[in-house]
């Protein structure tokens, strides 16, 4: 049965699809995570971080695949910050936010990875499709966000419209295959939503990209397939 998929376009000078952070090092992956997409939509809809039930419900419904459209080039940014308890920072709500922690006695050093001049296309639907918000409401929110949108981290502002149209297909893999383009694109789709063997398959892995929104930390993984998919011929 053919279904409707929302197409998202992530393109920016800098973007970050965060991976598992260890100590002060924040890596980026090649493909976005389920938790990142959930947070993006929640920001567009104007939800507060304390809306834990709504976040968890949305993440549980998200079904998506992604296509990388450039060779990943990674930039590592070494950051040094000297923060005091009285410091305040900019937020996407438009009002400064204070800090609840103590002052640091010395500069705080950390590293963050970014993808540079990258482009990724995502196909996404919601299961079940009769819940709230609807897929159409998510599409509308991307074009009329309550707060500014960013790709992974606040400095990563998109350089084009995120809402990129619709495709109809029976599965994630077929939805990715229906996207226009030429060549074989490195892609990701959930296990059970496309082939899992053959010359075009790179690997099958358990991908830790879920967040426990009720408890406020990342936990949980999904079985996904990475492989190559050829784009459909543009008319």
Textual characterization of the structure:
This protein has 235 residues and is of the alpha+beta class. Helix content is 16%, strand content 39%. It is built from four helices and 15 strands. Strand 13 and strand 14 (217-218) form a beta hairpin.
Helix content: 10-25%
Relative strand content: 35-45%
What characteristic shape results from the CA principal axes?
Answer: globular
Please provide the ordered H/E string of secondary-structure elements. Answer: EEEEHHEEEEEHEHEEEEE
Rg (C-alpha, Å): 18 Å
DSSP helical segment count = 4
Structural class: alpha+beta
Global mean pLDDT: 91
Question: Can you tag this structure with a few keywords?
Answer:
alpha+beta; nine-stranded mixed β-sheet; two-stranded antiparallel ribbon
Offer a quick outline of the entry.
With 235 residues, the protein is α+β, with helices and mostly antiparallel strands.
How are the elements arranged and paired?
Elements lengths: L2 E13 L1 E2 L6 E2 L1 E2 L4 H12 L6 H10 E7 L5 E8 L6 E2 L7 E2 L9 E19 L8 H9 L19 E7 L2 H6 L6 E7 L10 E7 L3 E2 L4 E2 L3 E9 L5
Parallel strand pairs: 3-9
Antiparallel strand pairs: 1-9, 1-10, 2-4, 5-9, 5-11, 6-9, 7-8, 11-15, 12-15, 13-14
Helix pairs in contact: 1-2
């Amino acid at each position: 049965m053919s279904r409707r998929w929302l197409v998202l376009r992530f393109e920016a000078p800098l973007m970050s699809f965060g991976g598992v952070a260890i100590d002060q090092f924040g890596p980026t992956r090649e493909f976005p995570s389920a938790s990142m997409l959930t947070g993006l939509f929640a920001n567009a809809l104007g939800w507060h971080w304390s809306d834990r039930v709504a976040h968890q419900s949305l993440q549980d419904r998200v079904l998506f695949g992604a296509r990388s459209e450039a060779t990943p080039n990674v930039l590592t940014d070494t950051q040094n910050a000297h923060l005091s308890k009285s410091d305040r920072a900019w937020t996407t709500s438009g009002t400064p936010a204070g800090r609840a922690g103590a002052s640091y006695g010395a500069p705080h050093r950390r590293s963050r990875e970014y993808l540079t001049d990258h482009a990724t296309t995502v196909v996404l639907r919601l299961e079940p499709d009769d819940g709230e918000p609807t897929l159409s409401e998510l599409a509308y929110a991307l074009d009329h966000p309550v707060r500014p949108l960013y790709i992974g981290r606040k400095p990563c502002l998109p350089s084009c419209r995120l809402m990129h149209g619709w495709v109809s297909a029976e599965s994630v893999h077929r939805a990715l295959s229906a996207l226009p383009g030429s060549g074989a694109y490195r892609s990701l789709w959930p296990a059970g939503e496309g082939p899992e063997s053959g010359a075009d398959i790179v690997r099958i892995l358990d991908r830790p990209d879920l967040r426990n929104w009720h408890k406020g930390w990342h936990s949980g993984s999904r079985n996904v397939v990475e492989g190559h998919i050829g784009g459909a011929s543009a008319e």
